[in-house]
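user: can you give me the structure for this one chain? tokens are fine.
assistant: on it. calling the predictor now.
[tool input]
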Amino acid sequence: MSLIGRLFIILFAFLAACFVAGAVVVGAIMFPEFSDLGAGPVDPGVLNIVLGFGFIFVSGFALVPAMIVVLITEAFYVRSVLAYAIGGGLVGLACYLGLVPFDIEQLRFEGIVRRHLEIMTGAGILAGMVYWMIAGRTAGAWRVPPPPPRHPPPMPSHSPSPR
């Protein structure tokens, strides 16, 4: 039963990490719009829609690489925040490089934008740290067997025997 509970915690942590990464990506991409004081205030409804699409985008692309990191950390009881930050950065890097065309003849990526690469990697690092705060600190805890039941203390010798 503890494995099923652990799966729910992992799913919740993944969704929270994707929401944070999506917000970072949307905020960083839209930063030039936010910094322009002449543009006026941003409509909250539009911002909610953009954040929703950012969440869907990040969670859709990050699912498989993030689950690989989760499987490795759960299998080997990795509980270090640094491991999750590095894993999140690698997931962000993989998500970005998955969108960039790869030239097979020259064995290099075509059209890498350094700013976008940094945004995705930074969002992955932050998402990894959010995941660690929710589920990573107790990675592999579902494997630990429960402690054996303690036996009650012996009856004192001067007490009357039960009849």
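assistant: here you go. The beta strands are 102-103, 108-109. The radius of gyration is 24 Å.
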